[in-house]
Amino acid sequence: xxxxxxxxxxxxxxxxxxxxxxxxxxxxxxxxxxxxxxxxxxxxxxxxxxxxxxxxxxxxxxxxxxxxxxxxxxxxxxxxxxxxxxxxxxxxxxxxxxxxxxxxxxxxxxxxxxxxxxxxxxxxxxxxxxxxxxxxxxxxxxxxxxxxxxxxxxxxxxxxxxxxxxxxxxxxxxxxxxxxxxxxxxxxxxxxxxxxxxxxxxxxxxxxxxxxxxxxxxxxxxxxxxxxxxxxxxxxxxxxxxxxxxxxxxxxxxxxxxxx
Length: 260
Description:
Strand content: 15-25%
Shape: globular
Number of strands: 11
Order of helices and strands: EHEHEHEEHEEHEEEHHEHH
Largest sheet: 9 strands, mixed
Structural class: alpha/beta
Helix content: 25-40%
Number of helices: 9
C-alpha cells in the first residue's frame, strides 16, 4: 500500500478548539515513517484563522470558503486538492492523546479488504462516546440498519461495523473516490453513514478499533438541530431504504427502542 496521509479538518466557528487539535495531530503524524500533510478549511464562518496560520503555517495548509458548504462538501473540496492514497477526516474538537493512533489505523488498512478504519471516541470525561460507530452484526443491528437507523453498543475488541463517526475516519482514497465521496445533499448529519454504506456495498470493509482512541467534545460547530437531523434521516432512508419493508422494520425498531 502506497503510504502518504492527508488529515483534513473542516472548521466552522470552532477556532477555539483548533490549536489543541492541530498540536495533537502534528505530534501523532510525526510518529509515521512516511509523508503526511494537514489541511484546514475555514468553511464560511466568522472565525479569523490568521493567528493559527501564523502559528502553524509551516506545517498546515489553510484554505477558505466564502460560504458554509456543509461538512461533506467541505471535505470533498479538501480531498480534491490532494492526491494522498490515505485521507483522514478529523473534527476540530478532537484531541489525540494516544500518539500512535494514526499508526494503528494505518496498520489496519494493510489488509486490502479494509477501506475505512476509525478509533473509539471518548468524551472529555473519558467515557465511550455513544454512536461513534454503528453495529453491523446481530438482530438489533439488522433491524436498526434495515430501518435506516443505527444500533450502538460499547466494544472492547476490533470489529467490522456498518459505519464509523465522521469525527475521526481514516479512508482509503481509492474506496472514497470509487464511492463518489461524500453525498453533498447531506448538509450535516448522516453523511458518514451514507458514505460507509456505499463503500461497503462496493465491497470495502469498515473497521472499528477500540484499542485506538481519541477525545471528542462533540456538537461544537452547531447545537444539535432537530429539524436538520430529521431532514437528513429522511433523506438517508429515502435514498437507501425505500419501500414497505423498511417501514415494517422502523415500526419494530421504534417499539423496541421505547422498551430499552
